[in-house]
Amino acid sequence: MAVNTDKNSYTVIFAAVMVVIVGSLLAFFASSLSEKIQENERLEKQQNILYAMGVNENVDEGSVNFVSTDKVAGEFEKYITEQLVIEGDKITKDDNAYLIDLKKQETEAKAGKTRKLPLFIGEKDGSKYYIIPMRGKGLWDAIWGFVALDNNLVVKGVYFDHKGETPGLGANIKQRYFMDDFTGESILKGTEYAGIAVAKGNNDPTNEIKDDNEVDALAGATITGNGLSAMIKESVNLYKSYLESIRAKN
Amino acid sequence: MALLSKKDTSLILDPLADNNPITIQVLGICSALAITAELKASIVMALSVMFVLGMGNVVISLMRNIIPSKIRIIVQLVVVAALVIMVDQVLKAFAYELSKTLSVFVGLIITNCIIMGRFEAFALANGPWRSFLDGIGNSAGYGLILIIIGFFRELLGSGTLLGFKVLGDPIEKTGLYAIGYENNGFMLLSPMALIVVGLIIWVQRSRNKALIEEN
């Protein structure tokens, strides 16, 4: 039976049927896979936090290798000894603090509420790591990361990631050679919480000067770099009062 | 009977050279500029487009007799978008690492003009098997150019290939860098992709004079 595909009624019915079919297909996909996707994201977060404090499976100088997904839950429990939620002056322990959505907290803060700030305390080889999660803006989309500090607020390790920075340029913030440069830098400049700037005029490509609060920038990725500097500075200032208390204890 | 008739073979082989979607039809230039700063990204993008174009061509071809011609472009868009979203979701659930690598590219596939071009020009008028071959052929032709551009841009721009430092270390000054070689940072910027495409077109046309238009 030949159908007259030019008729208006046919066109409308076709469009309606198509929308229903495609819509339900996508909805089915999204809802049946969402659990698995969330689980993947949860494990990835654990891997990232562990990576920042130096628990990883890096074999050489160049690549980033996380703890494998089947081991990560155990390692996370072993190394992350405490998870805190800082809400204004109130500090509570919460073993699911790492699941707090920073973006949501940001919007809450804008709406005038006190935001919940998660902080993870890890312990490895007898020394303590304070791991701060952060989130900021790159050139195209969100960037985020985890920065591990020691008692003196010196960076012990970082992990950065991004949603959609330019491959080969801004996307390189998650490369080893960039992230490794942060290790040893202090987020303090005197008593000011200056963070660490990604600087073009750093003139220190091998990053031997560790007291300048600067790391060498990525060529061709100025805006991503600036976003990263701003993110670190803003985030450490959010945690200022807690970090002060760590320093005071020393 | 051979699996592929002579006509079918030409569906796959033609787009690789004399009817290449990028260098001859000048389609898909946008993604060729955007993602070829690294060889790996080029390869990944080529494979993703191959999947979507192959599948999409089959779907459109199966529906070709019932699609109302007035809204065929919208129908095509819906098919590409739905396929791309499904691929994205499945990757996120079962190959999370891979989906991280693909990140922006998956979304970018939708905007690739080669896909709409092949739907419109081929799948709407041909059967599913031939449409599938046409999709594979065209995406292979597209991927080939992408990989060539990615190869030169990464090699000359960063001195690496697939992330390996093939020319030595620019900071430690080893390998080629020891004798004063420098990376050409300009290769990492999009305009150089266009210039590389231009060079490929030049080489191709000087080898095959039949491709040169009269004017």
Automatic annotation (TrEMBL), chain A:
Subcellular location: Cell membrane
Every FMN-binding domain range: 138-239
Broad enzyme group: translocase
GO cellular component: plasma membrane
Subcellular location, principal: membrane
Keyword vocabulary terms for this entry: Cell inner membrane, Cell membrane, Flavoprotein, FMN, Ion transport, Membrane, NAD, Phosphoprotein, Sodium, Sodium transport, Translocase, Transmembrane, Transmembrane helix, Transport, Ubiquinone
Co-factor(s): FMN
EC number, as in UniProt: 7.2.1.1
Membrane topology: Single-pass membrane protein
Catalytic reaction list: a ubiquinone + n Na(+)(in) + NADH + H(+) = a ubiquinol + n Na(+)(out) + NAD(+)
GO biological process: sodium ion transport
Sites bearing FMN phosphoryl threonine, chain numbering: T222
Record-linked Pfam families: FMN_bind
GO terms of molecular function: FMN binding; oxidoreductase activity, acting on NAD(P)H, quinone or similar compound as acceptor
Membrane spanning stretches: 12-33
InterPro entries: FMN-bd (IPR007329), NqrC (IPR010204)
SMART domains the UniProt entry points to: FMN_bind (SM00900)
Biological role stated in the UniProt entry: NQR complex catalyzes the reduction of ubiquinone-1 to ubiquinol by two successive reactions, coupled with the transport of Na(+) ions from the cytoplasm to the periplasm. NqrA to NqrE are probably involved in the second step, the conversion of ubisemiquinone to ubiquinol.
Subunit description: Composed of six subunits; NqrA, NqrB, NqrC, NqrD, NqrE and NqrF.
Family of this protein: Belongs to the NqrC family.
Protein name in the entry: Na(+)-translocating NADH-quinone reductase subunit C
Natural source organism: Arenibacter troitsensis
UniProtKB/TrEMBL annotation, chain B:
Enzyme Commission code: 7.2.1.1
This protein's record includes keyword Membrane: yes
One Gene Ontology MF term: oxidoreductase activity, acting on NAD(P)H, quinone or similar compound as acceptor
Membrane protein topology class: Multi-pass membrane protein
InterPro entries xrefs: NqrD (IPR011292), NqrDE/RnfAE (IPR003667)
Gene (UniProt): nqrD
Localization per record: Cell membrane; Endomembrane system
Reactions catalysed according to its record: a ubiquinone + n Na(+)(in) + NADH + H(+) = a ubiquinol + n Na(+)(out) + NAD(+)
Record function comment: NQR complex catalyzes the reduction of ubiquinone-1 to ubiquinol by two successive reactions, coupled with the transport of Na(+) ions from the cytoplasm to the periplasm. NqrA to NqrE are probably involved in the second step, the conversion of ubisemiquinone to ubiquinol.
Biological processes, Gene Ontology terms: sodium ion transport
Keyword Cell wall biogenesis/degradation appears in the UniProt entry: no
Segments crossing the lipid bilayer: 41-62, 74-95, 101-119, 140-164, 184-203
Entry protein name: Na(+)-translocating NADH-quinone reductase subunit D
Keyword vocabulary terms for this entry: Cell inner membrane, Cell membrane, Ion transport, Membrane, NAD, Sodium, Sodium transport, Translocase, Transmembrane, Transmembrane helix, Transport, Ubiquinone
GO CC annotation terms, alphabetical: endomembrane system; plasma membrane
Oligomeric form and interacting partners: Composed of six subunits; NqrA, NqrB, NqrC, NqrD, NqrE and NqrF.
